[in-house]
Every structure is written in C-alpha cells, then in structure tokens.
Amino acid sequence: MEEKQEELFNRWFSPQVEFVDEKTEEAYKARVTRLKDAIQYKKTPDRVPVFALLGFFPAYYAGLTPYDIMHDYSKLEIAFEKYVSDFEPDGHCGAIGPGPGKFFEILDYKLYAWPGHGVAPQHSYQCIEGEYMKADEYDALIQDPTYFFLATYFPRIFGAIEPFKELSPFTNVLEMYGGFTPVSFTPFGMPGIQAALKALMEAGNESLKWIGHVVASERKVTAAGFPDIFGGGTKAPFDTIGDTLRGTKGIMLDMYRRHDKLLQAMEIFTPLMIRMGASAAKANGNPIVFIPLHKGADGFISNKQFEEFYWPTLKKVMMGLINEGCVPFLYAEGSYNSRLELIKNDLPKGKTLWGFDQTEMAKAKEIIGDSACICGNVPTSLLTVGTPQAVKDYAKKLIETCSEGGGFIMMNGAVIDEAKPENVKAMIEATKEFGAYK
Amino acid sequence: MESSDLVTALADLKEEEALKIVEEKLNAGEDPFKILEDVRRGMEIVGKHFANNEYFISDLLYAGEILRVVTEKVKPKLATTKEAKRLGKVIIGSVEGDIHDIGKNIVVFMLEANGFEVHDLGVDIPPEKFVEKIKETGATIVGLSGFLTLVFDSMKKTVEAMEKAGLRGKVKIMIGGGQINEEIRRYTGADAYGRDAIDAVTLAKKWVVDV
User: Fold this and answer.
1) Contact A65, A172 (CB under 8 A)
2) Distance CA A77, CA A99 (A)
3) Residue A306: CB partners within 8 Å, gap ≥ 6?
4) Does any domain span residue A303?
5) A280 lies in a domain?
6) A255 and chain B: CB distance < 8 Å anywhere?
7) Which of A69, A196, A297, A307 could make an S-S bridge to A76, C-beta 3.0–4.6 Å?
C-alpha cells in the first residue's frame, strides 16, 4: 500500500497538463508537496498548507448567484477561476460542487431543493428529508442493491424515471434461447419507460456539457499552479443508508427496531463504497478521497452506538481505501470530541486526513495528532460576520495549537457560502504569514 | 401492573414492553388520563437522561416514536379533553429560507415534555408569520431555528420585524441550529442562543419566571 500511495501522489504531483510557465509548475509542485508532507508525516512541510472548503462562495464573490453558476456554465468557470487566482490557496475543491441545475430539472430530482427550484436563486441546496427506502425494504436492498436502486429508489428520487419501477431484474437475463430472454425486455417497449429512457439521455447530454466546462476550468487552474484537493469521494455506510435512503429518523429507529438488518445492509454497502472512492481517485490521479461524516457526530448517537453501528464499516471503508493507495479525507461535520478516543488506535500513521468543524482542536491534536493529519475549525460564523483581524487571530492560535511536528492543514470548519471575502483572505494570508516551519 | 413499570419501560425505551403494559391497563379499564400521566413522567425521565448526556438524538427520536404509538393507542379512550396546565407559551419555527426541521422538532419535543404549550410554525417561516402568531397567542417566548448559514440574516430580519411590530419588549427570543453561536446571537439581536434542546428548556423555564 506504501507504493500504491506513492504512485497516486506522484500522479497528483505530475498532472497531465501544460503549465502556463515554469513558475506555475514550480508553484503547483510546491503546493502538492506541502500537502503531501503534512499528510504523510515523513517530512515536516515548509509551512502549514491552507485551503478553503467552499459551497457557493465563489459565485457570491464574483457577484453572481448560485442559480447563475448552476445554469450558465461559463459563469461557473469565471467564478471558480476568479476565486482561485484572487485568493491563491494551496489547493481548491474543484468546480464540480455547484452542479448542473438543468440536469436536476430534467430528472425531476426529489432529494433536494436547489437554487431556483424550491429555494431562492441566491441561496444554496437544501436536503428534503424522507424515507426514500421504507423500513420493510431491507431484504430487497440486501438481496440485490443495484436492482433496488434502479427499480425502487430511483423512481422515488427522480420523478422522470418513475416508470423504472416496471423494470425486471437484469439477472433474469440468462442464456436460454427462445422466450426467456426477450420477456425481460418487454418493459423497454412500454411508452412510460421509453419516455424515462429519453429523459436519461437528455440528462446525460446535460451532464456531459456541464462536466466539459468543469474539466476545462479545472485544467486551467491546475496549469496556473493550483492543485485540486479531491481525487474522489465516498461515504460511511451508516450515512449512505441514513442520509437519503432511510432518512435521519428512519435509521435512528432502525438501530432499535431492525438492528440485524441494518448491520447487514451496511456490510453490503462497504465494498461498494470502497470501489466508489478508489476508482475515482485512480481515474483522477489524486489519492485524496473525501468522506463527509454526518450521523456519527457528537450528540447524534451514543458512543456505544458509534462503536456498534457507525465505526466498524466506516473503518473498513477507510482501510479499504488505504489499501488501494488512497488517503481518506474524513470530514467530521458538527463535533467529534467524544469519538476521538474511540478511533485513535485505528488510524495508521500518515494515511488519513481528518477535517473538523467544531471539534476542540487541542484535543484532536493530542489524541489523534500523532498519526493523522488534522485540518479545519475556522468557524463559519466568524468568516461570515467577524472581522479580518479576528480571523487572523483565530488562525494564528490554531497554528500554535496544532502545527507542531507537521500534520496540520488550515481550513474552515463548515462549507462556506456568503462569507466575507476579506475574512476568507485573512484566513489564507494569516497561514502564509504565521505558518512557516523553521 | 404498577404504574411505575410503565414509567420505567418508557424511560428505558422498551417499546414492546411499554405497549404491552398500556394494552393491559386499557383492557383493565384504567383511566386513560392516568396512563398519559405515566407517559409524561416517562418522557420527563428521557429528557433528564438527554440533559445528562446519557441519551442522544437517536434516543430522543425513538422516544418520540414510542410516544406517538402509545398516544395513538390511548387517545380513542379519552372521553373528554381535559386541558393540562401549561408552564407558558412558546412559538417556534425554522426561519425563512431554511427547510430543515430535525433539530427544531427535538426542541419542540423537549419543551412539550417539560410542560410548555408549543406552537410549531414549521419550516421556511417569514418574519411576519412569527409576528402574527405572537399577536394571536400572546406567547412570551420565541425560538428561531436554522441549519444553514443563510439563516444568520433571516434571524436578524425576524428579530427586526418583532421590533417594528412593537413586540420586542414583550417577548424573549432564543436562536439555535448547526452554525449558531454567541457571535451570531449578537449579530441577530436575539436574547440568547442555545446549543441544544436542553439549553432551550433551561432558557424557557428561566424566561417564564422573568416575564
């Protein structure tokens, strides 16, 4: 796994782009090296690296709305490139985050309200909680997750392909001549499914158009010397089921009422989650796999529930990714104070990156800071309503608390939308000013 | 069957056991109000466990679910509606632009379990709706909930609307949600912020005496 990780880091270090000039190439390589050293613990970096975890901040900064950059992809490029060139962070989160509005409209997406569709054009996505998988459907999910997604989950979350509930399992198509195989295809002759397939093709066209802009823009930014932080993404199996299949309330009740089924379903998802993260990292030539952590945060569940339901399969996903040479970037939203002791012995040195929102950073450094690189914690509230001086003071204090011996990256706590630009700049500049290792 | 058994079963989140006891009590012709009083006592203990960090959001959601199932069983047997005595009135809602409600619902559950009359306006509530409801109910406590950062401004506007309507001196306002802290409390002009449902109950109890 050492060689695999080194290989992915090397690919990240030498991307397949034409740099603007030698200076930008040098700057790019210095930034990747800085991030790599902070993560690997083999060498102390030249200084604390810094980047911001962004929602729609670049849109607001460019004087645009979230709606604008989700519907006019050239505006997405403008906003994204302006942010990176004006702020000069050590890394960025790519232009993929905002997503394509028309794609969701074509498919009649139900999981979220988005700018201009259920929320105002100037605001961000909002999750629409629901039981998109019913409590009594665990057996169906466990037996055949792909068929369950295709014929049960998709029809509920994409209105335009609701007719897919008529599809038969593809595993019915066996090598038997005569009528056995054709009979599985009869649903494809029905008008409803044909309309759904047309919607999928239209959505595919939109996705392709959008990703073209995203990739072009990211390549430009790379060529200008700024690495993309994310090689891929995946989720903790508990969150996969809890976020948008069973919903928050659903999964909480299932821990009591459907204990065994829930555990079994998470085991089914575990290899799928590893595959999702590792395949993206390999395709993109970047080891970092983002894993946003939701329902294992302090207060949501007990330590006992965390140890029984949340951590075992997340740990397997984490180790599976590490074995593939990836660096799991576990981003703990909310706070994780009560979990640090529970996870500390499970973290191989120099193989993970932990992002924290409201976790006490001194505690995080003390408990997991010997093996894991930690980042985050500059409060979103401070960046939104505070002053540049207050941000600078906060960042300086974080550096004093967390940077000793490497293993620390400056980052904001929760994803930022309408933060004050001068405050985001203060976070980045304070790190450059105070973060050097001597 | 002792009534304390039901209280304990509920407090320990033993759903099947609690339901069995309720069935037995109903079959034995016990006063449904007495059963509901046991249920209230059980939920009060659940709230205490939460306050002591022995119970978590998972436990509260499950307690709420058991409460729903038990109440559904008992309600048809209630011949009259006897109004329980309430501590005070609270108006609560997720502010304009925000449609999240899990945190808010937990606060509602805890306030009700502690004897408050809660008017839950729901999600994405514009400032004027809060104002209207305060005038209609005469409530003295208002809770503004929000998960996203856009709510900083929505909360500020809601507090300003109460000010404009001449209600600011008559109500105490608390705010809470994912990214809310003291700094945001100052920004919005609210009276206090609460980190969780326990804070909300503590504040409400304090304010009911103050007003």
Assistant:
1) no
2) 12
3) A296, A339, A342
4) yes
5) yes
6) yes
7) A69
Task: Return the H-helix or E-strand segment holding B175.
Answer: strand B172-176
What Å distances lie between residue B109 and A21, A383, B61, B114, CA to CA? 61, 33, 9, 9
Q: A232: which 2 tokens?
A: 């891929």
Short-list A217, A181, A183, A179, CA closest to A95: A217
Q: A349: domain CATH number?
A: 3.20.20.210
Stretch (H or E) spanning A260: helix A259-284
The one-character DSSP state at A261 is H
Helix, strand, coil abundance in chain A, percent, nearest 5:
60, 10, 30
Q: How far is CA B127 from CA B97, B104, B151, in A?
A: 11, 17, 12
A416–chain B Cβ distance below 8 A for any pair: yes
What domains lie within chain B, and their CATH numbers? 3-77 (1.10.1240.10), 89-210 (3.40.50.280)
Handedness of CA B142, A419, A412, A127 (dihedral sign): positive
Within 10 Å of residue A163's Cβ, how many Cβ atoms?
Answer: 18
Structure tokens at B135: 């005038």
pLDDT tens-digit readout, B107-146: 998 888 888 999 999 999 999 999 999 999 999 999 999 9
Tell me whether A124 touches chain B (CB under 8 Å).
Answer: yes
Distance of CA B106 to the CA centre of its chain: 6
Distance in angstroms (rounded) separating the CA atoms of residues B87 and B153: 31
As a whole number of angstroms, the distance between CA A29 and CA A37 comes to: 12
Single-letter amino acid, residue B153: D
CA–CA gap between residue A363 and residue A226 (Å, rounded): 31
Give dist(CA A326, CA A289) in Å, integer: 7
- What count of other Cβ atoms lies within 10 Å of the Cβ of residue A307? 14
B62 to A128: CB separation less than 8 angstroms, yes or no: no
In whole angstroms, give the CA distance from residue A294 to residue B187.
Answer: 27
> Distance between CA A175 and CA A83 in Å, rounded?
55
Domain that includes residue A18, residue range: 2-51+229-434
What pLDDT does B97 receive?
85
Q: What is the pTM of this model?
A: 0.91
> What sign does the CA torsion over A141, A147, A153, A156 have?
negative
Q: Do the chains contact at A305 and B58, CB–CB below 8 Å? A: yes
Q: How far does Cα B71 stand from its chain's mean position? A: 17
- As for how many domains chain A has, the answer is 1
Residue A416 included in any domain: yes
Higher pLDDT, B32 or A158: A158
Residues B139/B171, Cβ–Cβ less than 8 Å: yes
A189: in domain: no
How far is it, in rounded angstroms, from Cα B184 to Cα A118?
26
* A252 chain-B contacts, CB cut-off 8 A: 57-58, 61-62
Q: Do B57 and A249 touch (CB under 8 A)?
A: no
What is the radius of gyration, based on Cα positions, of chain A?
Answer: 23
What ipTM describes this predicted complex? Answer: 0.88
> For chain B, what's the residue count?
211
A304–chain B Cβ distance below 8 A for any pair = no
* Residue closest to A8 by CA, chosen among A407, A276, A348, A326: A326
| Tens digit of each residue's pLDDT (9 = 90 or more) over A218-271 | 999 999 999 999 999 999 999 999 999 999 999 999 999 999 999 999 999 999
